[in-house]
Amino acid sequence: MNFIGSHILSVSQFKRADIETVFNVADQMIPYANRERVTRVLEGAILGNMFFEPSTRTRVSFGCAWNLLGGEVRETSEVKASSIVKGESFYDTARVLSGYSDAIVMRHQVEGSVDEFATASRVPVINGGDGSNEHPSQALLDLYTIKKEMEGRGKQVDGLRIALIGDLRYGRAVHSLCRLLCLYDDIHFSLVSPPELKLPSIYLDEMKSHGHECLESAQLQSGIAHADILYVTRTQEERFPSKEEADKYKGLFRLNQTIYTENCEPNTVIMHPLPRDSRGDARELDDDLNENPNLAIFRQTDNGVVIRMALFALILNVADQVEKTARDVNWYTAGRFSSQ
Ligand code: NCD
Fold first, then answer.
1. Which atom of ligand 1 is nearest to the CA of 173?
2. Which of 177, 241, 246, 308 is 20 to 30 A from 71 in CA distance terms?
């Protein structure tokens, strides 16, 4: 695909070569994310970071990624802080905000809303999550993490055995990741969920049509055996008709150190798009795994920065110029970045 000036709305836009392009640029961004180097390549550019649904990592890491490239960020983080509550359409909002920004990231609870917004926008729009539909930048950072973790274990993405656990019906991170993995060969999916929260057939059919193995079950222990990656998800309670309905599914699948040790092969990677629900009735990913070296959740969040920097650099056509304006940092840095 031609990244320059493009909207990023769905992972269906990508071919495998595009993913490699994003990952190569992301690798180049590591010294900047790690605060070894500083670049001003987007100096003067403004990002409209429009979040109409709760977000911590996606919102802040998109903002940081833009800042690390030298640009400024303008942010709306609540629907009630924008004129959408006064009845303003996505069309008008997009026409207005695209006059103020060089790129826009948008999250909204309505499926398809970001596509509608992008149609009216005069600048590139990145989907930061539209309802239970898609979350393309999350899938890219997840796949980048999977690739690094597999390479560190002498394996690759082709042939991957991945167990996806929890709310596969409403989880947009899962939906985008399943689609993205369709670009690779011979993937073995173990889909562990309550029957009511199974992966929608639109994704399942796509995975099967690519020849991937898809085993559905409601059994955690057998579902996670033999996997290279465990991808645990939270019950997406905000998508359910009521909290009572969502509560029925909380705590059904709980991964902890004991279950991991008893059922998984050594070095099985544990991932979660976060937030994990740490409340007593949920705890789908127990804190007792925090010291497990195979827990990759904070490597995922670190990788989100370089992936989002790469998307901006490609869309705004500055990937080749980043180094031109760069210098070493001159403040104390902790060397915090952990891509692997
Ligand atoms: C995910 C999301 O918002 O879809 N979070 C994220 O962006 N990292 C997953 C979730 O909220 O459970």
1. 4
2. 177
